[in-house]
Amino acid sequence: MNSSTGLQALEARLQQDLDLLELPAKAWVPPRQYQGEQVRDVVVIGAGMCGLAATAKLLLSGIDNIVTYDAAAAGQEGPWVTFARMETLRSPKTLHGPALGLPQLTFRAWFTAQWGVDAWEALDKIPKAQWMDYLVWYRQVLNLPVHNGVRITGITQQESLIALELSGAETGRVLTRRLVLATGRSGLGGAAVPEFLRHVDRHLWAHSADPIDFAQLKGKRVAVIGAGASSMDNAATALEAGAATVDLLIRRKEMPRINKMTGIGSQGVVHGMFQLPDSWKWKFVDYTATMQTPPPRASTLRVSRHANAHFFLDCAINAVTQQGDALLIDTTQGEMTYDFLIAATGFANDFHGRSEFAALAPHIRSWADGRYRPEMGAPRASLLQAPDLGPDFAFRERQPGACPILAHIHCFNDAAMLTHGKVSGDIPAVSAGADRLVRALAASLFAEDVETHFANLQAFDKPELLGDEWIDSTPLLKQENGL
Ligand SMILES: Cc1cc2nc3c(=O)[nH]c(=O)nc-3n(C[C@H](O)[C@H](O)[C@H](O)COP(=O)(O)OP(=O)(O)OC[C@H]3O[C@@H](n4cnc5c(N)ncnc54)[C@H](O)[C@@H]3O)c2cc1C
User: Fold this and answer.
1) What is the reported pLDDT for 352?
2) How do 334-338 and 340-343 pair as beta strands?
3) Which residue's CA lies nearest to atom 22 of ligand 1?
4) How far is the CA of 469 from the centre of ligand 1 (A)?
5) Continuous segment of H or E residues that includes residue 110
6) Low-confidence ranges of the chain (pLDDT < 70)
7) Which tens digits make up the pLDDT trace of 286-327?
8) Residue 1 confidence (pLDDT)
9) Which ligand 1 atom minimizes the distance to the CA of 427?
10) Which CATH entry fits the domain spanning 3-189+348-451: 3.80.30.20, 3.40.190.10, 3.40.50.720, 3.50.50.60?
11) Which PANTHER family match (predicted)?
């Protein structure tokens, strides 16, 4: 078996499964126009893993007047082959991820179809570029309507519809009834940048999600802030590129060692977290943030195997000062001098940080706007910023009536975690998240068109019985009874 015939056979099996399950379901949403312009039923922004899973689930559910846009070129979506600097995924290879309950759509099926069972057994973790290859196949085999190289630059209200401004490979505007923001970790804000870096010249530092020319770091003294996976990946990449020294500046007294949320992962967590009272949601997410997720062991060893790598714990940064082409960093362990700094400081849900959300941002209700109550626990800034979403992932308005289209804009990305649990960011439960999202979209599109559906019910006149299947015996009975 060569890899392409293996893949062809897999694709045939997938097609058979879809046929057996009568998927995709028949299209059922009545078409809409606005002043002669076509109106989409759903637009998805982002064709990373979450956007692909949502798009696939919509199509399988018979909602086919949809389109998905991604600013990135095809095959470059998300972090995997851009700013992800790990060698492999952290996740176990067996996760079924975006497969939506279809065994032939899993990474495992895709891998074994091409390289066989022995190679599967030998595989430890999934190389990150291979995960991207799988996502490319996923999109192709399901024929998902993804348009690449198109950035959404503005989102406004057009009566009851949502108007999107496009730039790049397609321009102009597109109208849609529902919008899904599958815009990723940075998708509702961007990189979280510590205050002490804001005044520092950009040629001396980068965020871990920036493009970084690591070759330029050869022979340089590099500092990396943080103790998470991204700090290890960036430190290791700098070391492998020949940096003179790489220091990890870690505020904590100890490295986090236990991956708490992964430890309790279960279908209970996937389906139950979002039904819990808000106080419990806060407790879980706040505790997890306090304990922090450790970097993977392999990523940490990838750094520590270099003699010129140093881990400085209990080393908080007080200030960063530019001194010519160097950085003087004042830390709780004293002053240190570097040529370059990488801030592996994560992402923020600051809606004001993204121009495409400018018209919506002032109206989006966050947990700080009343959903958080002090008795839930300490007021952690990153959680207070989280959007206060409905059960359908839709945003809510700060002032009722000020921006009604928010009820039709669904936040299917990492920012949904506090309200929904981890179903719209990481690999393990993305299919459950896509299912929850699409059920809600189907219900709301159906409800909005209820008059049309009722009219269709009344107008439907295809008989099942033709009238020749039975004889009415009542006249005979009447005759017998003398009536
Ligand atoms: C470095 C790294 C490693 C990770 N490793 C793992 C792991 O091992 N296991 C795991 O479970 N999770 C992991 N994750 C978490 C998660 O799985 C990934 O972040 C994943 O990419 C999330 O998918 P997504 O679709 O939400 O976002 P993304 O994959 O980031 O996709 C978002 C897409 O939206 C597009 N976009 C955004 N704004 C616009 C716009 N205005 N117009 C058009 N397009 C737009 C972007 O171009 C992008 O392609 C990792 C995350 C990172 C950052």
Assistant:
1) 76
2) unpaired
3) 425
4) 60
5) helix 107-122
6) 1
7) 999 999 999 999 999 999 999 999 999 999 999 999 999 999
8) 57
9) 11
10) 3.50.50.60
11) FAD-DEPENDENT URATE HYDROXYLASE, FLAVIN-BINDING MONOOXYGENASE-LIKE PROTEIN (AFU_ORTHOLOGUE AFUA_4G09220)
